[in-house]
Amino acid sequence: MKAQSHTRSISRSLPIALLRARETVMAPVRDMLQGIQMTEQKWRVLRVLDEFGEVEQSTIAKEACLLLPSLTRILRTMESEGQVTRRQDSHDKRRTMVRITGEGHRIFEENRLVSHEIYANIEEQMGRHKLDRLLDLLEELRSVKF
Amino acid sequence: MKAQSHTRSISRSLPIALLRARETVMAPVRDMLQGIQMTEQKWRVLRVLDEFGEVEQSTIAKEACLLLPSLTRILRTMESEGQVTRRQDSHDKRRTMVRITGEGHRIFEENRLVSHEIYANIEEQMGRHKLDRLLDLLEELRSVKF
DNA sequence: TATTGTTATACTCTATAACTATA
DNA sequence: TATAGTTATAGAGTATAACAATA
Fold it and tell me: Is-contact B14 A27, C-beta < 8 A?
C-alpha cells in the first residue's frame, strides 16, 4: 500500500530531478575525467579559467560552485600539476589572480570534445529547441528569491 | 580579453546549469536540514521511504541517487537514530527490506512543509506551467542514451 | 571595519575492490 | 554464476570558525 501523503511524487521533486538529470549527463563526462585523473571540481575550474582568462579566486568559486577553502586546496594541487598559475594582484594585494597555463589549456582542449559530443548527442535526441528551453528555465530558476 | 574558444558559455553548460539551479533550490532546504541535524542524503532516503513504504535497499539507492556502500552506512545511522527499521526478506534472504518508523515519519512530516513552501514559492514566481515544463524536460533528459 | 584568501578541523560522501550469503 | 548487501580503504568535498593581510 502506498503511503498516504500529499507529498509530491519523488520523480517530480525538483531537487531530486535536478540531481538525477545531472547524474545522467555527468556519467559519460566522469568516464572521460577518470581517464585523465581529473575530478569534476578541477574540470569546472579549468572551464571557468578557459572562459574568463585571468580571474580572482572568489569569481572562480562563484562560477564553479565551490567554497573558497575547497578552492584553495584544489588550486594548490592544480598549480603543482602545472595547470594554473597564481599571482598577487598589484592593485589590491588581497586578491590572488589565477590563470590557466598552456598545459592546462592543452588538457582542456584535448577533452572538451567529449563534452561537446555529449551535448550534441542530447541535442540530437531532444532537439535543439527543447534543450535551449531547458537551459532558459534553469537560468530562470536561479533568479527565484527565497 | 576573452579566451578564444568555441566552447559554450559556462552559463549554458548543462552540467553546471543543473548544479547551479540545484544549489539555488537547495539553499533554503539546507537551512532547514541543518536545524534538524540531517544530511541531504538522509533526507532523500526519508522521502523515498515515505513514498514507497517498505522497499529493498537497491531501490532506495536508485531513487535517492546513492551508492550501496554509502547507503549501508547511512541506514545504519538512521536505524540507530530510530528513523528506520530493517528486516531480512523471507522469500529472498539476500534482500533487506527497509521501512520508515513512526519517528522517521514524524520528522518527515514536521519538515516537508518547508519543502512545500519552497516549491510554492518557485511556482508563484515562475508560474505553474513553466515549472511543470521544467520537470518534464528534466525527466526527458534522463532518458537520453549515450 | 570589511574583504580576500588561508589554515585547521570534523564530518560526510564517493568510488572501488574484496567479501559473504543467497539465489 | 549472478545478485544483494557489507566491509574496508583511499580520496575528496563540505562546512565552519579562526586567522592574517590588506583595503
Answer: no
Pick the CATH number of A13-142 from 1.10.10.10, 3.20.20.100, 1.25.40.180, 3.10.180.10: 1.10.10.10
| pTM for the model | 0.91
Lookup result for grid cell 598559475:
A85
Which residues 117-136 of A are in CB contact (within 8 Å) with B? 118-119, 121-122, 125-126, 130-131, 133-135
Among A residues 84-103, those touching chain B with beta carbons less than 8 Å apart: none
Which amino acid appears at position B145 of this protein? K
Give the integer Cα–Cα distance in Å for A78 and A91: 25
Task: Identify the CATH class of B23-142.
Answer: mainly alpha
User: Cell triple for residue A43?
Assistant: 574540470
Report d(CA A40, CA A33) in Å as an integer: 7
Contact present, A104 and A82 (Cβ < 8 Å) = yes
Cα–Cα distance between B74 and B61 in angstroms, integer? Answer: 11
In chain B, what residues touch A116 (CB-CB under 8 Å)? Answer: 7
φ/ψ region of A37 (left if φ > 0, alpha if ψ in -120 to 50, else beta) reads left
pLDDT tens digits for range A1-42? 443 446 788 888 899 999 999 999 998 888 888 888 899 999
A59-73 pLDDT, tens digit per residue, is 999 999 999 999 999
Would you tell me the crossing angle of helices A128-142 and B14-35 to the nearest 10 degrees? 30
Paired strand residues for A98: A55, A86
Retrieve residue A134's grid coordinates. 531547458
